[in-house]
Amino acid sequence: MSECANRIELLVVELLRSLLNGDASLRIPRNTTPTTRDHRRVSYNHRSSRHSFCLLVYLLARTHSLQVHGGSYTVRGLYYGDPELFLSQNRMARARLDVCRMLSTSPMHLGVLAASKGLVAGDVQFLMTNGDVLDCSVYGGAVTLPWNPENVERMETQAELVLVVEKESVFESLLSRNIFATFGRRFILITGKGYPDCCTRRILHRLTEENHLPAYILVDADPFGIEIMLVYRHGSQAMSFSSRGYTTPSLRWIGLHPSEIAALGGGAVALGTGDNKKINDLLARSGLEAGVRQELRMLREVQLKAEIESVICFLSEDYIPNKIKRKLFL
């Protein structure tokens, strides 16, 4: 039996003890570390948390069944299997995250999987465990990443590097500008369409670890773009208790850097209140690299931000190749 199934059974024993004491409840870690002793309690006896309690018990039961018998569910399929129970997909997403916290595991390992939103293009073949082959090089455009990266037995490629871009619009713009012909090097292009899902992060991790490819990322010169870069590099703050295998610490941030905004001329706009709050939140994090911290302070000093689109005209032939060649990354 899997470790995850064993943990669920221990939680059920704890739940039965609480039942004997007259308070059916579950404890969920508040913080994002597996050793924390700080929990919040979700109780069936309290009207305000009764629905959350039922969702957690339901998901724990489904997860245990998957761990014992195998298989998987999609988040969408599970929700539409009983929408009256979940009430909304947001409630289900929160419950799934709470189950992950309780089990100190990632959503991938629950067996309840969200459809992949990441896109890939370029020189890579995904060889699946069932014998199928997804050859991205034969498609003229974007290919959706496999929804379960653990079904990818291995990846074959002649690429020299992986390039991650923050937004789908930039991804599509680079393809329309025939970047694979103008870039000068064989590479794999990936986007997580903003904040990346676990599948996109897992595939990037495997490409760097298993295929030994250097990876570079291009994001907007704003605090949210920087945060997205940090999610790829170090993992999500909400899931930091289970980031192993989903991070790429070697990821190189080639731009846009806030220190470049002054040289862009036009295209920059003023930061908003939310931007400044995000900058302060990021600067408050421990373990932040010195170069990233310096760029965040620069962003706060100039009070301007810029999007990748401001340099889109010379990205593939000038900006990206020169950044890589001259090692102008953080």
Short description:
It is built from 14 helices and 15 strands. The chain has helices at residues 3-20, 47-69, 75-81, 83-86, 89-103, 107-110, 168-176, 179-182, 198-209, 223-234, 261-264, 273-283, 290-302, 315-325; strands at residues 25-29, 39-43, 73-74, 112-113, 119-122, 125-128, 133-135, 143-144, 152-156, 161-165, 187-191, 215-218, 252-255, 269-270, 304-305.
Verbal overview:
This protein has 330 residues and is of the alpha/beta class. It has 2 domains: 3-113, Arc Repressor Mutant, subunit A; 119-325, Dna Topoisomerase Vi A Subunit, Chain: A, domain 2 (3-Layer(aba) Sandwich), CATH 3.40.1360. Helices cover 45% and strands 16% of the residues. It has helices spanning 3-20, 47-69, 75-81, 83-86, 89-103, 107-110, 168-176, 179-182, 198-209, 223-234, 261-264, 273-283, 290-302, 315-325, and strands at residues 25-29, 39-43, 73-74, 112-113, 119-122, 125-128, 133-135, 143-144, 152-156, 161-165, 187-191, 215-218, 252-255, 269-270, 304-305. The protein has a 6-stranded mixed sheet, sandwiched between helices. Strands 7-6-9 form a 3-stranded antiparallel sheet, with no helix packed on it. The protein is globular and about 70 Å long. It catalyses: ATP-dependent breakage, passage and rejoining of double-stranded DNA. Pfam families: TOP6A-Spo11_Toprim, TP6A_N. Its cofactor is Mg(2+). InterPro entries: Spo11/TopoVI_A, Spo11/TopoVI_A_N, Spo11/TopoVI_A_sf, TopoVI_A, TOPRIM_Topo6A/Spo11.
